[in-house]
Amino acid sequence: MRITCPHCGQRDISEFTYLGDGSIRTLALGFGGPDAPPDAEIDAAHDAVFLRDNPRGHHRELWYHALGCRQWVDVVRNTATHDVISTRAAAAAHVELER
Amino acid sequence: TVQAKKVGIAVAGNTSRLADMAGLRLPIESHVLQAFVSEALKPLIPNVITYGMGHFYISQSDKGGLVFGGDLDGYNSYAQRGNMPTMEDVAECAMAILPGLGRTRMLRSWGGIMDMTMDGSPIIDATPIDGLYLNGGWCYGGFKATPGSGFVFAHLLATDRPHDEAAAFRLDRFRSGATLDERGAGPTPNLQ
User: Fold this and answer.
1) Does the beta-carbon distance from B77 to A79 stay under 8 Å?
2) What value does the CA radius of gyration of chain B take, rounded to a whole number of Å?
3) In chain A, which residues have their Cβ closer than 8 Å to the Cβ of B175?
4) Beta-carbon separation of B190 and A59 below 8 A
5) How many CB atoms lie within 10 A of CB B126?
6) Per the CB < 8 Å rule, is A54 touching B175?
7) 8-state DSSP, A15
8) Is A59 in CB contact (< 8 Å) with chain B?
9) Which 8-state DSSP code applies to residue A59?
10) Which chain B residue has the Cα nearest residue A14?
11) In terms of Cα–Cα distance, which of B17, B154, B33 is closest to B82?
12) What is the DSSP string of A76-94?
């Protein structure tokens, strides 16, 4: 399996470290004092941290080019065939996700 | 259509896909675990050898082939096959403990689909949907646990109460904080 790093070109997967689902929106979690956060915040945090779509097919995921440019790559890959559909710099992809 | 009063999901690897049919999202990622068989050798290994630091196991089948494997490839997969870096890593583990295998040829390799959970421990529990029960998330330890897993799951299905041995494997433990993360790897399934 090869991933085309947007900065370095096509490289073998052994140069990359896998994180996981790249569509997860990270949360700013508040840990305020003795008052427990409302259930909605706990539910949202639980969903973001622990629950996954885990599709058989196109999967949007984050890979770290550890043995190359050391930048994060946003990859769409088919989990049933291992075909890499698209790759782009994660920083650009993250800005889009936040909109 | 097939109907039943109680339905139990026990489909390691494809748990998320079935749960999705019921509108459930789970703390599971499906990962590939490769396994390998060598050419037939005269009796060499009478037991199972596990190499803890390398996360590697090896035994010998009655047909003479050495059966061995090691770590996950490390990325989500339903492909039932893995890639070369892991093959190389597993072969290195074999050589580390049994260097005499250096000339042994690899005959066959394949990959299974593992239900990797967010804490590396299984889930045996009723789901929020009435009548639907789940036995999954066994990561790479399910095959050997099958008799015990089936026994406690049958208890749950029959009595609607968890068996004492399986009471900790709740689906809501991730939300309540009662995770069973023996490796201390955190909510990263490929590191479990």
Assistant:
1) yes
2) 19
3) 42-43, 46, 50
4) no
5) 19
6) no
7) G
8) yes
9) E
10) B85
11) B33
12) EEETTT--EEEEEEHHHHH
B25/A80 Cβ within 8 A: no
B187·A49 Cβ contact <8 A: yes
What is the ipTM score, two decimals? 0.91
Give the SS3 label for residue B27. Answer: coil
Partner B contacted by A47 (CB < 8 A): yes
Residues in chain A with pLDDT values less than 70: 25-37, 93-99
What are the residue ranges of helices labelled H in chain A?
39-50, 90-98
pLDDT value, residue A97: 55
Q: Residue B137 corresponds to which tokens in the numbers above?
A: 């998330």
User: What is the model's pLDDT at position B33?
Assistant: 97
Residue of A nearest to B17 (CA): A55
Q: Structure pTM?
A: 0.91
CB count in 10 Å sphere of residue B89: 17
Chain B interface residues facing chain A, Cβ-Cβ under 8 Å? 14, 16-17, 20, 25-30, 74-79, 83, 85, 118, 174-175, 187-190
Summarize the confidence of residues B19-44 as an average pLDDT. Answer: 97
Q: What is the pLDDT of residue A35?
A: 63
pLDDT at A89: 94
- In sequence order, which residues have a C-beta less than 8 Å from that of residue A42 and are 6 or more positions away? B175
Burial bucket for residue B98 (CB in 10 Å: 0-12, 13-18, 19+)? middle
Distance of alpha carbon B98 from alpha carbon B85, whole angstroms: 20
Nearest CA among B106, B113, B24 for reference residue B66: B106
Q: Is the pLDDT of residue B73 over 80?
A: yes
For range B20-49, the mean pLDDT: 97
Q: Are A51 and B27 in contact (CB < 8 Å)? A: yes
Give the three-class secondary structure for B138: coil
